[in-house]
Design goal:
Strand order of the largest sheet: 2-1-3-4-5
Largest sheet: 5 strands, parallel
Order of helices and strands: EHEHEHEHEHHHHHHEEHEH
Number of domains: 2
Shape: globular
Radius of gyration: 26 Å
Length: 331
C-alpha cells in the first residue's frame, strides 16, 4: 500500500489508538488521502524508531504524542528529544487530564516545542484532522504533484510487469496464443510505421539535414510501451477472474492518470495568476505565447489542470492503487 502521510503515534492506551485510528482513516479517505500509522506503546521502541529516522531518510510527517506514557516518562521529554535532533515534523501533544500542564510546559520552554499543537481527548479528532489536511496540502505544490504521480504510477508499472512475468507461464496454451497475437499484431503495425517513417527520415537527412529539430527529436518510440503492457495485463486479469477493478478500471487509469503523468511529470509547469490552474508547456515558444489572462475563466487553451481536476486524479490514483495492491498480494 502506498501512503500520502505517515504518522507515528506514541500512547500507552491501545484502546484509544484503535478506536480513533479508524475514525481518522475514514476522514482521510473521504478527502482522498491515505495514511499509515505506526503505533508505539513501549517508549523504548520509540527511541529505536527515532534513531533510524534521525540517521536515515525522513519517514514520518506527523507525531501524535500522549502526555502520560509511563510512571517515569512523559511525552514532553520525547518531544524535547525530537527537537534536539532537529526533527521538524508537526507534533500533536495531547492528554485526557493534563492539558493545562502541557500548556504550561510549552510556555516555559517555547524553543523546544516549536511546531507543537496541543489537544485533549475531546478535541483530538479536530486537531488531528487539521494536521492531516495541513500536511496533505503539500500534494498540491508543483514539485510534489510531479513526485506523487511518478511515485504512484511507477509502483503500478512495477506491479503490472511483475504480474505478467509471474502469471504468464500458468496460462493455458490458448490464452498464451491470444496474448502472443496481441503482441504480434502490435509489433507488425509498429514495424510498418517505423519503416515508413525511417525511410522518409533517412532520405530527408541525406538530402537536406535536419529542417525541424522538434520533429526529429520525436522520432524514437518504444516497441513495447506501457500502454501495451497494461493491455496485456488487463487481458490476463480477465483470464484469472480473481480481481475486479470496480472503482477505477484499467482503461480509465490509462486515459486519465497515465495521461496526467505524461503531461505533468515531463513538461514545464507553472501556476496561473489566480492559482486556480496548473499550466503546462512543451517548449519555450509555448511558454512565451500562452499568456495567463487576469481572469482564469478567459483561458482559451486546454493546456491546464484545475485544482478540482487534480483532486479527482489524486482520488482515482488511490482507488486504482488499492486494486493494484490486491494484485501484489496474488504475486
Amino acid at each position: 500500500m502506498r501512503y500520502d502521510l505517515r504518522i507515528l503515534w506514541v500512547d500507552d492506551t491501545p484502546t484509544f489508538y484503535d478506536e480513533t485510528k479508524e475514525i481518522l482513516e475514514m476522514f482521510a479517505e473521504d478527502n482522498g488521502i491515505s495514511l499509515q500509522f505506526d503505533y508505539i506503546e513501549n517508549v523504548s521502541d520509540f527511541f529505536s524508531k527515532m534513531n533510524n529516522d534521525i540517521k536515515g531518510f525522513k519517514l514520518y510527517d506527523i507525531f501524535f504524542v500522549d502526555f502520560t506514557l509511563s510512571d517515569d516518562i512523559v511525552g514532553s521529554s520525547l518531544i524535547r528529544d525530537l527537537r534536539k535532533e532537529k526533527m521538524d515534523s508537526d507534533i500533536l501533544f495531547y492528554s485526557s487530564e493534563h492539558e493545562a500542564d502541557i500548556r504550561q510546559t510549552v510556555t516555559d520552554d517555547l524553543g523546544s516545542f516549536e511546531g507543537v499543537y496541543i489537544a485533549n481527548r475531546n478535541n483530538f479528532e479536530e486537531k488531528s484532522n487539521y494536521l492531516i489536511n495541513k500536511n496533505a496540502r503539500r500534494l498540491t505544490t508543483l514539485s510534489n504533484i510531479r513526485g506523487f504521480l511518478m511515485d504512484q504510477t511507477s509502483e503500478n508499472d512495477y506491479t503490472i510487469k511483475s504480474y505478467i512475468l509471474r502469471q504468464f507461464d500458468i496460462l493455458s496454451p490458448e490464452q498464451k496464443k491470444e496474448i502472443a497475437d496481441i503482441l504480434l499484431n502490435y509489433i507488425k503495425e509498429k514495424k510498418n510505421t517505423i519503416e515508413q517513417i525511417a525511410t522518409k527520415e533517412i532520405a530527408r537527412l541525406e538530402t537536406s539535414g535536419i529542417q525541424n529539430i522538434k520533429k526529429a527529436m520525436g522520432l524514437i518510440g518504444e516497441l513495447f510501451p506501457v500502454e501495451l503492457k497494461y493491455q496485456i495485463f488487463q487481458k490476463m486479469l480477465e483470464y484469472s477472474g480473481k480481481i475486479d477493478f470496480e472503482d477505477v478500471g484499467v482503461q480509465q487509469y490509462m486515459d486519465e492518470i497515465i495521461k496526467a503523468r505524461n503531461t505533468l511529470a515531463h513538461k514545464k509547469l507553472d501556476v496561473c495568476k489566480t492559482q486556480e490552474f496548473i499550466l503546462y508547456y512543451d517548449t519555450i515558444v509555448q511558454f512565451e505565447n500562452r499568456k495567463c489572462p487576469n481572469n482564469c475563466n478567459e483561458h482559451t487553451d486546454d493546456n491546464k489542470y484545475s485544482l478540482e481536476q487534480w483532486d479527482n486524479i489524486r482520488r482515482n490514483v488511490q482507488k486504482f492503487g488499492k486494486s493494484i495492491d490486491k494484485v501484489q498480494n496474488h504475486l
